[in-house]
Amino acid sequence: MTTDGMYRKTQTISPYYQNVIIRGAKRLHYDTQVLLQAAGLPEVSTERQSPETATQLIRSVWQVMDDEFMGFTQQRCKQGVFAIMARQAIQCQTLREALQQGTYFYHTIRN
Known about the structure:
By secondary structure, this protein is mainly α. It has five helices and no strands. 54% of the residues lie in helices and 0% in strands. Helix 1 runs parallel beside helix 3 and helix 4 packs antiparallel against helix 5 (95-110). The longest helix is centred in the C-terminal third of the chain and has 16 residues, at 95-110. It is flat and about 40 Å long. 14% of the residues are buried.
């Protein structure tokens, strides 16, 4: 229990998503074991991971591949583009507006 009397769940992420994150790298023949080790993960995991560990894995994939789309698209996305888009979307008043802004942003940079 927290100091304000509320119970908080420990948030974790299914190991399924670990495999999804590295799928594009694997398809493009990157050494996924190196990516997993950089995030402190074993090659095969059945345990749930912390959001911080998943974030570290994503950052490792971005850095090694120099592709924020992680190999899932034909066109690569340079590092830093997501941060620029996030700065724009954070100013939106609703989730819908943020999603529309993000969609517009990515369509603009890809064309």
